[in-house]
Amino acid sequence: MELSEEQAARIAMLREDAENRYAEGGDGALDHSVAHKPHDSAFALLLDGKTSTPVVHDERCYICRDPEFAAMGLPLCRRCPDCTRSGRGDGHIPADDTACTVCGYEDGPDDYPTSG
């Protein structure tokens, strides 16, 4: 697979980030790093230039700490509607969960109205 300069730089940055997280004690950082696995079908998601923009950050959250999720354009962690309504700040609902790590609120479809 031939990479452009921009793609190669992006992959190098993501690999370095995973290696740094591993060196800091993130045991799964290298095992789960798609940037280290060019044979993985998800590797193409790192090359297409589509990214997601983080709206909340929790340093304890593996999704928030791993820039590969955003680089692949995957859904990221989101604000908690209850924390926002109650004035507790943004809260933090992990992308792979429905419960806020700040207050425990379980979000649902009624929290995200759609235009119809």
Compact description:
By secondary structure, this protein is mainly alpha-helical. It has helices at residues 5-23, 62-65, 67-71, 81-86.
**Which oligomeric state applies?**
single chain
- What general form does the structure show? elongated
The proportion of residues in beta strands is under 5%
**Please, what is the average pLDDT?**
92
Distance between the termini: 43 Å
Number of helices: 4
Largest sheet: none
Assign the structural class, choosing from mainly alpha, mainly beta, alpha/beta, alpha+beta, or little secondary structure: mainly alpha
Please write the string of helix (H) and strand (E) elements. HHHH
Task: Give the number of DSSP strands.
Answer: 0
pLDDT < 50 stretches: none
Helical proportion, percent range: 25-40%
Radius of gyration from CA coordinates: 16 Å
How would you explain this protein's 3D organization?
Helices cover 29% and strands 0% of the residues. By secondary structure, it is mainly alpha-helical. The mean pLDDT is 92.
